[in-house]
Amino acid sequence: MTIQETESQIVLTHPDNKNTTVTILKYGATVISWKLNGIEQLWLSDAAKLDGSRPVRGGIPLVFPVFGKNQNDELVKDLPQHGLARNSTWEFLGQVKSNPLTVQFGLNETIANPEMTALWKEKFNLILTVELGSDYLKTAIEVENSSNERDLKFNWLFHTYLKVPDIEDTMVSNLTGMKCFDSLIKESFVDKHPVVNFTKETDVIYQNIDPERVIQVVNQGKPIHTVKRINLPDTVVWNPWIEKSAGMADFEPKNGYLDMLCVEPGHVHEFVKLAPGEKWQATQILSKDALNYQAI
Ligand SMILES: O=P(O)(O)OC[C@H]1O[C@H](O)[C@H](O)[C@@H](O)[C@@H]1O
């Protein structure tokens, strides 16, 4: 069976390799596991809630229509941190391709979490496409403004929790020279470091990254994750480190920050704006490519 559906989740198994799988919860259309040849690539907290009681701590939560908590914007200020997509149950739309195995999920204002749509009364249609390749996982989003009258403005972000062997031996490449905003010190600057490394809590939004820059996560000189972006100009790099992990009830084990790194491609530093009827598409592709330093 290449597609198994239960009440709460979908498991895709690669037709040529039963050890390559992706599991997607209907809640949040959250990818909670991606195994390549039997090896898990994503980090999922041992205390993650998978029962729809709160957004999943780990995997690939989807952030829409607001990144973080935006108090300054009239339209989104009442929404909780990271919006409504990650805490709504999406509809499974079924298989759209058998090779590569591809499925879709949908969300609009009529089925989204009513507690959230009471706070943000826009009309929208989201289609998430998940494609399981033999050596990659592609997640693509289409946002449609389904209103006849109003513009739709939103942020989008794939909040990808990558599994890493040891954060202290891990770095992120190909962000050199990019403008960024450090959310901890609340300052913008151009990152001149040859690579990003981790010795403390890190929460940085890289903005308008050259589209051809391919972000790689490198551990002890070996590339362990490649994150490709289509139409996603920004990327957040986040590791909560010791104190922040301790403060998150659903973050377990408490030293789990050593094994994870969030690299989150998105469109967050400005809103995407769509006129009535317009559509916007963007894609994240995770793979394990050869090392390619594009900038040092
Ligand atoms: O705890 P959450 O709402 O899931 O947010 C988790 C994290 O998401 C992003 O990476 C933000 O940049 C962080 O500031 C935030 O702490």
- Quickly count the helices: 2
* Mean pLDDT across residues: 97
According to DSSP, the number of beta strands is 22
Assembly form of the protein: single chain
Q: Which structural category do the helix and sheet elements fall into?
A: mainly beta
Which stretches of 5+ consecutive residues score pLDDT under 50? none
Bound molecules: 6-O-phosphono-alpha-D-glucopyranose
Main sheet, how many strands, which sense, barrel? 9 strands, antiparallel
Catalytic activity: alpha-D-glucose 6-phosphate = beta-D-glucose 6-phosphate
Family: Belongs to the glucose-6-phosphate 1-epimerase family.
GO cellular component, one term: cytoplasm
Enzyme class: isomerase
Detailed description of the structure:
It catalyses: alpha-D-glucose 6-phosphate = beta-D-glucose 6-phosphate. Pfam families: Aldose_epim. The chain has helices at residues 114-117, 241-247, and strands at residues 3-5, 9-14, 17-25, 30-36, 39-40, 62-63, 91-98, 101-108, 125-132, 136-144, 152-158, 161-163, 170-173, 179-182, 187-190, 196-197, 202-207, 215-219, 222-230, 234-239, 260-274, 279-287. With 296 residues, it is mainly beta. The strands form three sheets. The chain has a nine-stranded antiparallel sheet, with no helix packed on it. A hairpin with a 2-residue loop joins strand 4 (30-36) and strand 5. The radius of gyration is 18 Å and the shape is globular. The mean pLDDT is 97. Bound molecules: 6-O-phosphono-alpha-D-glucopyranose.
